[in-house]
Amino acid sequence: MEPIHDGGSGSMNEVELAHLAWSIVDRQATAVLEVGTGRGASTTVLNEAVSGRVVTLDVNHATVQHYIGDDFRDKLGKTTFIQADSHSFAAIELVARYGPYDTLLIDGDHYYPGVNQDYLNFAPLLAPGGVCFIHDIEWGDVRVFWERGLPLRRPLPGHLHPPVLHKLGPNLGVVLFPTPPNGRLDVS
């Protein structure tokens, strides 16, 4: 894979991208949701690493078009691009049509209310045993959410146990949702 950006501000660096790719391949991910396409660096890695499909959601795909090219949809053939506000009901409904997901990457809105809402909107779309990555956990409001966000400390609906948080690198966190012993959620 050729580098598509300089790894500067606003993008995942090479180490973070490697952690993400390794995790996707190791877990044999087949359905990935990315909230926040940005320049398309992580989208490109996800598209290459996943054995199934990637759905990426952003308010504007002009940035990814600028960095990858006008034919970005062709180059990233496993990826479905949804252009919408991640906090809108329409976006949630559109994204849910492609679910459930085994992997979620949150790297969109970087203000506390926004990252909190992205987590609340999309983590419930994860299948049992799913994984949520959160980028920029050492930056501003995302850091506050990572360190003190109440939703990260509570079980998802139907789950018996709260998620387990782990730092994969200085700026990439992973939220693990334990799989129930029978592999199914308690929906009673």
Describe the structure.
Strand 6 and strand 7 form a beta hairpin. 40% of the residues are buried. This protein is 33% helix and 22% strand. It is α/β, with parallel strands linked by helices and 188 residues long. The protein has a seven-stranded mixed sheet with strand order 3-2-1-4-5-7-6, with helices on both faces.
List the helices and strands and how they pair.
Blueprint: H1 14-26, E1 31-35, H2 41-49, E2 53-58, H3 62-68, H4 72-75, E3 79-83, H5 89-97, E4 101-106, H6 112-122, E5 126-135, H7 140-148, E6 164-167, E7 172-176
Parallel strand pairs: 1-2, 1-4, 2-3, 4-5
Antiparallel strand pairs: 5-7, 6-7
Helix pairs in contact: 1-2
Helix content: 25-40%
Terminus-to-terminus distance: 46 Å
Biggest sheet architecture: 7 strands, mixed
Global geometry: globular
> What is the strand arrangement across the widest sheet?
3-2-1-4-5-7-6
